Structure formats: C-alpha cells, structure tokens
Structure to design on (398 residues):
C-alpha cells in the first residue's frame, strides 16, 4: 500500500527538465530501449533513465559517458522494486557554448561570495616538510610533479592520492582526497594536478562542490590543471595557480642548487661587509690614537693645570685689588664721619652745656641763676650751677 501511494504521488509530479552528467550508457542490440545513468556530481546522486533509441539518436546521436545532457523526463516509481527512475522523451547534449555560459554564471556567483578574494589566499611555506598530491593514477601530471620536485629538492616527501580526474566520479573522489589531506597535520601544502584536455574533460575542476571544498581547506592548495591557457574555476579559488604541473613543482619546492648559490653569494657579501667594517674601524682607531691627547695625555693635564693656576692668580689679584679699594673707601668714610662728628669738636676744646631737662643751652638768656647745668666734654662730664653771669663749678662725672 505504501509503495502504491508513493507511485501515485510521484506520478502526479508530471514532466520536468533535468540536467546532469551521463555516468553510463547501455544500448542492447536489437532493443529499442536505452538505459542511462544520470549523475549529479555536486550532490553525488544518480538516477536511472530510460528512453527510446530514436529519441536518443535524434537529440544526442554521439552521446558518450561523461557528457553533460539536458532531458525532458517524467519521474516514475516502480512499486515492485521500490526504485525511482526517469523516463525521457527528449534528450539534448549540452553544447560547448552553453557549458561556457553556465561556467561564467557560476564564476560570477562564486566571486560575489568572496571565494576568489585575494586577501584570503594563503602563501605556501618556503620549504614544506610534506606535500599532498591529488592526481590521476600513473598520469603524466603525477610524474612531472614528483620528478621536478625531487630534482629541485631531493629530500622532499609526498603523500599521493590517485583519483579519477574526469568522468562522473571525479568530483566526489577529489573532494574526499582533499578532506583526507587537509586532516593530515603533516601536510603543509596540497597540489591538485591534471594534464591538459578539452573543456569537457576539465569540467570536474569547475564544479561548484569542488570549488567550495578547496575554499574551506585549512591547508594551502595549489591548482595545476591543464596548460597555461586552461583556467577552470578551481584556479581562481586555489591559494596559488600554477600554469602546469611542472610549474607547480617549481613554485612549491625551492631549487637546492639555486639556494646553495644564494647562500654562497650571501656569505661572500657578508665576509666583504665584515672585512670592510673591520678595516674602517681599524683606521678610525689609528686616527684616534694619533691625536695628541692620546699620544701624550699628560699634555692636556699640564695645560689644564696651567690654566687653573693662571685663573687662581687672577682671582687672587682681583680679590686683593677689591679689598684694598674697599679699605681705602672705608678710611675715607671714617674720616668724613669723624670730621662731622660732635666728638671731634669736643676734642678741640669745646663743650656742650645742657640744662637738667636735657635741652642744650645756646644763649645766656636760656638759664637763670641757681639753674643746674651739665657740661659735656670730650672726655667725661661736669655738673655746674649758674651764679650770675659766671658759674660755680660742681662735682665732675665720668
């Protein structure tokens, strides 16, 4: 009952257009029915297709395995076997122009998503310890990569995974190989290589699923597909694009002979630089040692000692001169003070007469009889009393 319901439901889907890659063709002699296996490389799915020989001869008379086709088909579910298949009434082989148009559309889509961005591309190591190689079995591409790499650096190591490089199984096998090598921590770089071929032969290397697998690899990926003019989409996604498998070996592995030559040249330049620096420093030291200050260091000390002695003598003379000038100025000041001092007048015999209240007597009328006076002399004082126009000497003080 379930199978019958599934068959009835699928029968209602009607006719559809299907695009895929022919994985297998079975033409039985004398039979009018042709069996095809149609594969979707991106989804890794296959379906059986039945069609009439006349339909196939009309739409794709030279159809071969690996070709891309578009067919008008109706899904059918066989309840007895529990299988889903397609019945086609029109089959068209996709031409080269249509393939290129589809590739261009896919290229714009991947570019818009950033899969071709330069800033995300990683630079492979200068000398990888181990290289992963994905290529066809016993192919010229494998031989070119291994031979040229070992010729350039004999100690290089490879881990080779042989896969189908064209046909319906190529994309799934290459994606699985990428996952294996990307998960190997000993692999420093991965090379995806294949020799030349037609556009149809190189279609697996423009598959969207393969491009996205390369984009998500943690290990740098080098694309070496076909010849210089071949540019599948994986070339734009890879971190490095090599024009040929031989060019990939040259880009990934350094040339031992060239590196030895560069090391020898660098050592020669380093020797010349060190020798030149030593010669310059030796001449500089000789020039420094020839200076008088280093040839006779005591000359500088003697000269500085003479300068110090001269400065000290000059300072002594200057100080004496200032002291003498200050002494003379002090004596002149003292002389002027003495000349103006009342004490100098008293020394010439004069005296100062004061009343008891301290007022200086300048005239006889300033005192009355019996007033007590004080007479100040140059040395000491006298007490006096007024008696008329004369005076009476009293006791002396001082």
């Amino acid at each position: 009952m379930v199978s019958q319901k599934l068959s009835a439901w699928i029968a209602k889907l009607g006719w559809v257009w299907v695009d895929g890659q022919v994985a297998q063709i079975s033409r039985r002699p004398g039979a009018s029915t042709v069996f095809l296996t149609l594969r979707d490389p991106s989804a890794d799915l296959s379906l059986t297709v039945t069609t009439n020989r006349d339909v196939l001869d009309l739409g794709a008379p030279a159809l071969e395995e690996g070709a891309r086709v578009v067919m008008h088909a109706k899904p059918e579910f066989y309840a007895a076997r529990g299988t889903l298949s397609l019945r086609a009434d029109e089959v068209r082989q996709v031409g080269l122009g249509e393939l290129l148009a589809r590739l261009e559309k896919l290229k714009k889509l991947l570019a818009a998503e950033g899969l071709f961005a330069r800033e995300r591309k990683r630079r492979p190591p200068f000398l990888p310890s181990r290289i992963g190689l994905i290529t066809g079995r016993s192919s010229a591409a494998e031989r070119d990569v291994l031979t040229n790499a070992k010729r350039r650096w004999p100690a290089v190591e490879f881990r080779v995974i042989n896969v189908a490089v064209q046909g319906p199984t190529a994309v799934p096998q290459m994606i699985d190989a990428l996952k294996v090598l990307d998960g190997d921590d000993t692999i420093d770089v991965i090379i995806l290589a294949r020799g030349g071929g037609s556009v149809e032969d190189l279609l697996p290397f423009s598959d969207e699923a393969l491009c996205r697998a390369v984009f998500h690899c943690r290990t740098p990926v080098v694309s070496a597909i076909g010849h210089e003019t071949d540019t599948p989409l994986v070339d734009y996604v890879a971190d490095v694009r090599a024009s040929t498998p031989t060019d990939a070996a040259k880009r990934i592995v350094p040339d031992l002979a060239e590196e030895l030559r560069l090391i020898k040249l660098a050592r020669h330049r380093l020797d010349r630089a060190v020798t030149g620096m030593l010669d310059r420093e030796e001449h500089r030291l000789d020039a420094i040692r020839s200076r008088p200050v280093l040839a006779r260091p005591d000359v500088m000390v003697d000269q500085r000692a003479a300068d110090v002695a001269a400065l000290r003598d000059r300072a002594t003379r200057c100080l004496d001169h200032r002291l003498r000038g200050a002494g003379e100025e002090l004596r002149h000041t003292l002389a002027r003070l003495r000349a103006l001092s009342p004490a100098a007048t008293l020394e010439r015999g004069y005296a100062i007469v004061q009343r008891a209240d301290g007022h200086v007597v300048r005239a006889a009328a300033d005192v009355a009889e019996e007033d007590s006076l004080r007479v100040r002399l140059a040395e000491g004082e006298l007490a006096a009393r007024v008696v008329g126009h004369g005076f009476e000497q009293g006791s002396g003080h001082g």
In short: The chain has four domains: 2-93, 100-254, 255-305, 346-397.
